[in-house]
Specification:
Rossmann fold; 6-stranded parallel beta sheet; 10 helices; alpha/beta; 280 residues; binds NADP nicotinamide-adenine-dinucleotide phosphate; 2 domains; 3-stranded parallel beta sheet
C-alpha cells in the first residue's frame, strides 16, 4: 500500500509555478485576500496561502475589514479590488457576516479572478465541463490523483458526499475526465457495497473514521477529503486509515493529505489567471 502525501503534490505544483514565473521581468502574479474579522481558521489559511505564494514568487495583498463593516462600504471596496488590473486572483473568506450581501459579491467577482470558484457563473462552467477555475478542494483531489499517475478515463469513481463545496463539483470534474461517477449521500442504500464497486473512492462526508475496509475494494485508490476532530480532539479524516490500508493500493492521510494541496491549487489558479490576462 502506498501513502500519497499532499506535501509532495504541493511541492511539485509550487516548483512548476516558480519556474513558469521566474523569468518575468514586468509585474508578478498577485493574489488579493479579502478577510472580514479575525476568525482563527481564516487567519491560519491566510498564513498558509501567503507562505505558499511567497515560495513561488507570487505577490499577495491582504484587505482586512472589521466584522461590523457596512455592506455598501464593503462592496465598494471589493469593487475596487476586483477592478484593479494588478490583481490576478481574489480569495474571499466566507461565510461573511449577515449584514453583507454575499450573493451580490459572488455576482460581482470577475470570473477570471475567481480563483476559489465562488461565482455562480464559475460553478456553472464546472457543471458544463468547460471551466476556468474549479473550487480548490475538488481540484486538489484531481491534482493528487494526477500526481500519483492514476488514470480516470473509464474508471469507476464513487464520491461520498453531495455538497456544493466538494461532492457535486468533484463529481462533475471527474465526469469531465471520463470517469464513471457514482455520488453517494446519507440516504444511499447499502453504502458499503456501492463503495466496494469503486476503483477510486473519495470520502467527503464529515464523519470521523467512518470509512473502514468493508467500504473498499481490494486494490482501490482511496482519497480522504474529510477534516474532523475525534473524541480526543485529534484531527482526523473520514477514513479509518489502519483498517482501509488492509485493502487499498493507494491512500491519502489526514492531516497531510488533500488539505495540504489546496493553497497550491490557489497558487496555480492565480498564475493561470495572470497568463490568461496578460495574453489578452
Ligand atoms: P457537508 O456539506 O456536511 O456534506 C457532507 C455530505 O456527506 C452530505 O452530502 C451528506 O449527505 C453526506 N453524508 C453525511 N453523513 C453520511 C453518511 N452517514 N453516509 C453517507 N453520506 C453521508 O460537508 P462538506 O462541506 O462537503 O465537507 C465534507 C468533509 O470534507 C468535511 O469533513 C469537511 O471538513 C471536509 N473538507 C475538507 C476540505 C479540505 O481542504 N481538505 C475542504 C472542504 C471540506 P446528505 O446530502 O444526504 O446530507
Amino acid at each position: 500500500m502506498e501513502i500519497l502525501k499532499g506535501s509532495a503534490v504541493a511541492k511539485a505544483i509550487t516548483e512548476k509555478v516558480r519556474e513558469q514565473i521566474a523569468d518575468l521581468t514586468g509585474r508578478k502574479p498577485r493574489l488579493a485576500i479579502v478577510r472580514v474579522g479575525e476568525e482563527p481558521g481564516d487567519l491560519s489559511y491566510e498564513a498558509g496561502a501567503k507562505k505558499r505564494m511567497e515560495k513561488a514568487g507570487v505577490e499577495t495583498e491582504v484587505h482586512v475589514f472589521p466584522r461590523n463593516v457596512d455592506n455598501a462600504e464593503f462592496l465598494a471596496a471589493f469593487e475596487k479590488i476586483n477592478g484593479d488590473p494588478a490583481v490576478d486572483g481574489i480569495l474571499v473568506f466566507r461565510p461573511l457576516p449577515a449584514q453583507i450581501d454575499e450573493k451580490a459579491l459572488q455576482e460581482m467577482i470577475d470570473i477570471e479572478k475567481d480563483v476559489d470558484c465562488i461565482s455562480p457563473r464559475s460553478m456553472e462552467k464546472v457543471f458544463e465541463g468547460n471551466y476556468v477555475n474549479a473550487p480548490c478542494t475538488p481540484q486538489a483531489v484531481l491534482e493528487m490523483l494526477d500526481h500519483a499517475g492514476v488514470s480516470l478515463s473509464g474508471k469507476r469513481v464513487t464520491v461520498i458526499g453531495r455538497s456544493m463545496v466538494v461532492g457535486k463539483p468533484l463529481a462533475m470534474m471527474l465526469l469531465q475526465r471520463n470517469a464513471t461517477v457514482t455520488i453517494c449521500h446519507s440516504r444511499t442504500a447499502d453504502l458499503p457495497s456501492v463503495c466496494r464497486e469503486a476503483d477510486i473512492l473519495v470520502a467527503a462526508v464529515g464523519r470521523a473514521r467512518m470509512i473502514t475496509d468493508v467500504y473498499v475494494k481490494e486494490g482501490a485508490v482511496v482519497i480522504d477529503v474529510g477534516i474532523n476532530t475525534d473524541e480526543e480532539g485529534n484531527l482526523t479524516g473520514d477514513v479509518d486509515f489502519d483498517s482501509t490500508a488492509q485493502k487499498a493500493a493507494l491512500l491519502t492521510p489526514v492531516p497531510g493529505g488533500v488539505g495540504a494541496v489546496t493553497t497550491s491549487v490557489l497558487l496555480k489558479h492565480v498564475t493561470e489567471s495572470y497568463f490568461r490576462r496578460n495574453a489578452e
